[in-house]
Every structure is written in structure tokens, then in C-alpha cells.
Amino acid sequence: MSTETVRIDPVTTRSGGRRRSRTESLSQALRFPAIVWVLHFLLTQIPASLAYRYGEIRSVHRVNGVWQPTEGQESGAYQIVRPELDGWQHWIVEPFRSWDGTWYSMIAEQSYSTTYSALSAFFPLYPWLMDLGNQLTGLPFETVGYIISHLAFLGALIVAYKLVRLDFNKRVARMTLVALAVFPTAFFFSAIYTESLFLFLSVTCLWAARKNDWLLAGIMGFFAAMTRSAGIMLLAPLAVLFIQQHGWDLRRWFPKVLLGLLLPAGLAVFGWFLITQGLDFLNWKNQQWQWNRFSATPWRTFECTFQGCENVTVRGFGGTYETNVPPVSFAWIGDLWDHLSWSYFTSSEFRYTVGQSQWLDVIVTLVAFGLILVGLKKLPLYYSAWTIPPMIVPLLAPSSVFPLMSMPRFVLPLLPLFVMAVLLIPKRKVGYVLAGISATLLVLLTTQFALWYWVA
Questions:
Q1: How many angstroms separate the CA atoms of 145 and 435, rounded?
Q2: What is the pTM for the complete model shown?
Q3: Residue 209 CB contacts under 8 Å (≥ 6 apart), including other chains
């Protein structure tokens, strides 16, 4: 365990932590997260808006090795292109509604249905809030989602700071927020995606459990399970904390342990709602085939990632078929070196190639598992329980499009990974350099996302 760690007491947080929380004023606890939130906003909004104003939305894709023209926005849900937004929203909000933003907007607008069965792969709390905000304010669904994402991220930073301060010192807590905000794919916190809301609900759930407030933990876990399928996996760190606080004497467990049922209740509510719409209870799981997902062992997933796989059976409309899984490629680095120019660097062909290469998927996944392994020794046990299930489960259902599809996005709500990264930075100057590199990648990938190039 790190020397910068505060150990967990058997029943509740230690009195030293309570004394520290009293002396650390509310303004101090809010000021730094707010500063980090502003930094994140500037690093994402400015490049996204500029790219959307002056850049070119993806105009090509490659089919069987042949370049073909395409309209990037047609790669959204069911090739539906959302209508343009008016005024300031066109330049501010539209750059952040790409890809899954189309799905969530469709759900908010028309709910779930048998006509668009794939919609049920996306959990309901976020689009329901978008719909509620639209009814209350009259703002477009996407604009409401944009506001929800930004407010949720601010709340997540505030609570994450409080949570990390329970287990580590102020330096670690502050640098963890910075690492989170400038991570290369952190623009998803600004997008019309569930990352911000899920992060807020997750850290609040575990902060409450860490403070022995199991009613609040259960409520936040319920809403987390209605936001992402990974919400149910919060049961693992909650179980660790519960046992650490209450021991193995079952008589001390009741009635608090029953609050853990609120997490599966979140899934049950979603399943019940799907039934009312003429769909199956587990349709959120059954529709994953539409993203070419298939069952595999983790080592098979990595084999497909690094070497490619042939004749993988996946389900399609009308039956099953066999397809080949492409391996990761770094050939784009050599291509850039051979055609080193601004025009090539900004060309749709090059940017599309980079997006399809899987380089980010591989690097982020390997680094994340490395941090998990080190964290088994240096982090509180519930931190490891928090990160391991959400990292393992995607390896059991890879996609034939990209075996590690979305992993650079899935790591974002896993706060312990960022804590561990901060603990491994030997010197403050090294941290500044790494933060600068990460922020640069964040700016570049934000422009990719804004112009409908695949990122994660």
C-alpha cells in the first residue's frame, strides 16, 4: 500500500479523516475541481468548435481496400442524420453529438420500440433525463444532454476529490482529477454520452459506502445500473467495503445488506420497461450482436487484436455469417512519415486510417491492466474490485470490427486507474510533461470525434 494512503478502518472512516474534512473548508474542496472542470472545458470545447467550423466531416471510408465516398454523419444510428441545431448550439453542441449521441437522442425523442430494436442496447436514465429537460425547457434533446454531461462531470470531479481524499493525501487527489480531465479520450465527458453521468453516480455511490452511508450508496447504485450495464458491477467494490466495515458476522449485516438489492433493481426496472414496449426483458443484452460482438475468452480476444482472426462466426440480419477480424495496425505512422505534410495530416483518408487502426484501443487496454496489477498491492482492495470486472467483461464479448472496441472509453469511469497512474509518477516535473502530452492527444482526438472519425 502506498505511503500516501489512508487505511480503511473496520467500521467507518477514521477520526483523522473526519478532523481533516472539518479543517478543509468547503471552498477548498470545490475550488480545485471547478478549476479542473474549466480546464477540461477549454481543452475540449475550443478544438471541437473550431474543427466543426473549419474542418471537413469525414468524407470517405474504405470497403475491401477501396476508398469510397461517404457522409460521416450517416454513420450514426440506422444512418439517420440528426437535424441541425439553431444559433450557438450549432457550433457548441453539434460537435459533441456524434456516434452514440445519435442513439441517445433517438431514445429521448421516441423511446424504445420494436422498429428500432438496437436502441435497447443503450440504458435509459440519460435519455430519460434528456427528454425531461426538453419538456421543462423546450431546448433540443442534444442541448439538454450536453448540459447534463457538463454538470454531471463537474459533480463527478467534486465527489471524486472527496473520495480520493478519504484514502490519499491532497496532492494525489488533485493530480487524479487532472489526469482524469486531460486523458486523451476525456472529451466523452463533454459529449452526449453517459460517461459523465455514470462517473458521477459511481463515485458518489462508493463515496457514500466509504462513509458508511449505505442508503445513499444504494440509491446511487440503482441509478448507475440504469445508466450503464457496468453499473451492476459496482456490487464488487461495495461488497468489499461492506465486509471491511461490518465483518463476517451476519447478524451485523441486516438490514443494511438489503440495500445492495437496489443495484439489480435498476436492471429489473429497465427490463420491465422494455417488456412494456414489446421487447424482451434482456433485450439490452441480446441486441449486442448488432455491433458484431461474439463470445470469446480474454486470450482469444487479445489474439484477434494482435494477430487477427479468420472465419469468426457472428450474427447478422437474416442469420449468421463468418468474417475476418483485422489486427491492430501502426502502418499509419510510416504513411505519415512518407507523406509528411499538413494536407496529408488533415486529409480524410489519413484520419480515417488512424481511426480504424486500433492503436489507441491496444495502448489504453494494456496500460490499464498494468495499472490494475500494480494497484493490487498499492491501492485499497475496493479500488481493485472497482476496476477488474469492467475491464474483464468486455474481453468476453469482443467485436469483429475492433476486438477491443470502446475500451479507451470504458476506462474513463474507473477512477482507481487514474489514482494508480498518479502514484507511479516519480516527480512533479514528469507529471507536468505527461499531462501536457495527454492534453495534446485530447485536443487531437476531440477534433477527430467532432468530425465523425472513429475514436473509441
A1: 28
A2: 0.92
A3: 217, 237, 238, 241, 242
Question: Residue 223: which residues within 8 A CB-CB, separation 6 or more?
Answer: 125, 201, 231, 266
CB 344 within 8 A of CB 333: no
Helix (H) or strand (E) holding 68: strand 66-69
Q: Which three cell numbers stand for residue 378?
A: 498499492
Which of 151, 206, 160 shows the shortest CA–CA distance to 180? 160
Tell me if 76 sits within 8 A of 82, measured CB to CB: yes
* pLDDT per position as a tens digit, 262-297: 999 999 999 999 999 999 999 999 888 888 899 999
According to DSSP, residue 84 is labeled P
Sign for the CA dihedral angle at 368, 442, 104, 35 comes to positive
| Each residue's pLDDT tens digit, 353-376 | 999 999 999 999 999 999 999 999
Domain edges within the chain: 15-293+414-450
pLDDT of residue 8: 46
- The secondary element (H helix, E strand) that includes residue 321 is strand 319-325
Query: What is the DSSP track for 403-431?
Result: TTTTHHHHTTT-HHHHHHHHHH--SHHHH
Q: Give ∠ CA 204-210-211 in degrees, rounded to 5.
A: 90
Per-residue model confidence as pLDDT tens digits over 309-362: 988 888 876 678 889 999 999 999 999 999 999 999 999 999 999 999 999 999
For the cut 60, the answer to whether the pLDDT of residue 93 exceeds it is: yes
DSSP string, 344-385: HHTSHHHHHHHHHS-HHHHHHHHHHHHHHHHHHHHS-HHHHH
CA 181-75-338 angle, 5° bins: 70
